[in-house]
Amino acid sequence: MGQHEVSEGWIGKVKQSKDKESTNYFMWLTIDGQKQRRATGTDDPDKAAEMLAEWRAQAKVGFRKDARLRYEEIRDDYLSSGGKIQESVRRDLDVYFKNIRIGAIGDKLNAFREWRENLDRVVEYKQETLTKEIALRKMKAMKDRRKPLSAIEIAKIENDAAEWVEKGVQTTTDKRLVYLRAMFYHAFEKTKKINLGDIPYFPIRGKAADNVRQGKFSEADFSNILAELPKNLHPLVKFLHLTGMRSGQAQAITWDRIDDDNVLRMPGFLTKNGQPYSLALTNRKGEPYEATAFLVNMKTRPHGELVFDMTNLREEWRLACHKLKLGMFDSKTRSYRGAQLHDFRRTAASNMNAKGIQEGKAMTVTGHKTNSMYKRYGIEELDSQRDALDAVTV
Length: 394
Hints:
Blueprint: E1 10-12, E2 15-17, E3 20-21, E4 26-31, E5 34-39, H1 45-61, H2 71-80, H3 87-96, H4 102-105, H5 109-117, H6 120-142, H7 151-189, H8 219-228, H9 234-243, H10 247-251, E6 263-266, E7 277-280, H11 293-296, H12 313-323, E8 327-330, E9 335-338, H13 343-354, H14 359-366, H15 379-393
Antiparallel strand pairs: 1-4, 2-3, 4-5, 6-7, 8-9
Helix pairs in contact: 2-7, 3-7, 5-7, 6-7, 9-13, 13-14, 14-15
């Protein structure tokens, strides 16, 4: 193993935003002319300096503790511990990092991003999505206008849509890097097969590449949607509009999940974050809200039977949104782009914020992931929900 040219290096904290820096230290070395960065995982400058000295000594002789440890081993360890990886994510990671030593992965992360974002299927997706997004944005811009869009307005729509689509692709690449990083930390914290210093810096763009949808419904939109949808779908839509619950979670509610005290109890295996979720369906007086009356007043509650009738939900939703110019649906190709049931999640949160409901109380209703989601809801939290729901139903 030959000697390598290594700088003295340094430790420091990195900027996470304009006014905030990281809690823990990072360390930098220049090895054979290439500047490298590693996390230390500590806020103690003395410990960070010791880790830097150890890294420098190892780098000089080219030492790698994990020389024979391969990607597949830390992946399988992660999966066997209960970790889950989306199939499309795993496919990309498995193809690119097949049989690669752990110590070599850090040098390939930026190349992985470039490779993944230039795959034929990704490029094709980008173009298809961009075409639909531009058409949707033009349609929305024209919704309440009596004159055509100007060339400047069209150019802005096209540029904004292109940026939105590009950021979306960057975000999906970030997702793959997040899973890979989780494998590394599992190998360090659980299996002890690597040291903290063996975890490379992951080029995750984070909020800079955030492409979260921002759609929400006005009260007029909500009324119009109800007018266009068949009556069998009204209970579900009203419930989502009030509570902001994830649509998939709401569609999985069965009658046995509603207690005699009219509290909805969702077990962890039916929630996105794996934590139990409870929701008060009545106010402090025991009276149901207009959107929960259907659930509270049902006399018979067959065990295991779904609460909401979702017959033709997908088709009817798309047709309604297309007619209201909230989305675009091609009945021949069956392709759709536009408003989603998930947009009620942001709508409910916005409605509660507009009423001055404290964020903590609102989140007990919508089920957004916070520290409070890691414990079961008690009486005090159910009353907080009632305060929030009372405010938006007055």
